[in-house]
Amino acid sequence: MMDFSRQLKVQGMNAETQARLAAAKVLIFGAGGLGATAIPYLAAAGVGALMIVDDDAVALSNLHRQILFTRGDIGRNKAVAAAAFCEARAEGSFQAIERRLSTAEIVAAMQAADIVLDCSDSRQLAYQLSDAALFTGRPVVFANAAAMGGQLFTMQPHADLPCWRCLWSEEVLPSGNCDALGVLGPVPATLGLWQALEAIKLITRFAPSLSGELLQYDFVSMRQMRLRVAKAADCNHHKQAADMVDEAVFEGDFAAAKMQGLRIIDIRSAEEIAQKPLLQADNCILMSALLDNPLQYIGRQEAVLLVCAAGQRSRSTAKLLRKQGFAGVSAYPKAW
User: Are 166 and 223 in contact (CB under 8 A)?
Assistant: First the structure.
C-alpha cells in the first residue's frame, strides 16, 4: 500500500480528496521532457489511472532531461517505458499507447478521461486537443519549454474562457522549439511538475487552478509572469461532431506528390514567395482567397497538396476545406 500521510497533511487535502485522485483517469500526450516528470509524480500522488500516448522511442539525447528513462530504455517506446516505471513504483492502472491517435480516437480517449495533459510539444496536436476539449468538456493542461523559458496554460472548456486558439492563433508562426533552441533538463522538468500540480488541483479541488491565465517563466532571470488571456471574439467555442475532422498530412516530398498526381498549391503571401519561391508549385493562391471561394480554385474531389512557410497554415487550411467536402485536399506539414 502507498503511504500518502505527508500528502494528506497539506491544508485542503484529506481522505476525500485522496479518494478523488484514486478514482481519476488522466490522459497524457507525450512522455518526453514534460511528460517524463509529470507522469511519475501523478502516479506517486495516487492518481488511479494514467493513459500515456507517445509514438516515439527513447534516444540517448533524451537522457539529460528525461530522467524517467535509463540507458537500458534506449530504443524502447517512451509510453511503454513510462508505464513500466509507474507500475514498479505506484499502485494504479498505467496504459501505454504506442502510436498517434486519429481525431476520433482523441475524442474517445478524452471522453474516457477526467483531465488531459499536453506534454507533446506539438503545436498541431495542441489545436486538436483544444477543439476536442470544447467538444468533450474535458480540461487540458498545456505546457511548452525551450532554451531557458516556458509557459503553462490550463484550458477550462467554458464558453466564457479562452481556449488554446485564443492564446495562439494559427496565423501566428512559432518562434522556435527545443530542437532548434536547445533546452536544459530542469526547464521542461519544472513545467512538467506544474502540469502535474495543476492536474491534482483540478481533480481534488483542494486549491484553485489557473483559469483564463497564462503562466510564463524566464529561467534566466527567475521571473514569473501571470498574463490574463482574452477570449477571442471570433473563436468558435461550440464545437460539434462535424468539427472533429481528421487532417490529411502528406508524408512524402514534392517529387512524390507530383508522381501521385497531386496539384501543389503554394498558399503563402507574395512576400514569402518572393523570398523563397517554390518551383514545384502548380499555383500560388493566397490562403484567404482559397478559403473565401474554394470552388473557384479546386474541385471537390481533386487531389491537392497545400504548402506554406511552416506547415501550420497548410494543415489548418486543408482541415477547413476537408470539413467543407473537399476530400482530396492534403497538407505538406513541414517548413518551406
Answer: no
- 178 as an active site residue: the answer is yes
Same domain, 70 and 203: yes
If asked whether residues 57 and 136 sit together in one domain, one would say: yes
How far is Cα 160 from Cα 157, in angstroms, rounded to an integer?
9
Q: What is the mean pLDDT of residues 49-71?
A: 96
Looking at the fold, whether 101 and 186 belong to one and the same domain comes out as yes
Query: What is the value of pTM for the model shown?
Result: 0.79
pLDDT digits (tens, 9 = 90+) for 177-220: 555 567 788 999 999 999 999 999 999 999 999 999 999 999 99
Tens digit of each residue's pLDDT (9 = 90 or more) over 70-83? 999 999 999 999 99
Rounded to an integer, the average pLDDT of 13-30 is: 97
Handedness of CA 76, 78, 82, 83 (dihedral sign): negative
User: In the numeric block, which cell numbers belong to residue 336?
Assistant: 518551406
198 and 278, same domain (yes or no): no
Residue 242 domain-assigned (yes or no): no
Q: Within a domain: residue 42?
A: yes
CB 315 within 8 A of CB 174: no
Expressed as residue numbers, the domain containing 323 is: 254-331
Count the domains in the chain. Answer: 2
What residue has cell string 518562434? 175
Q: Which of 178, 235, 284, 308 is catalytic?
A: 178
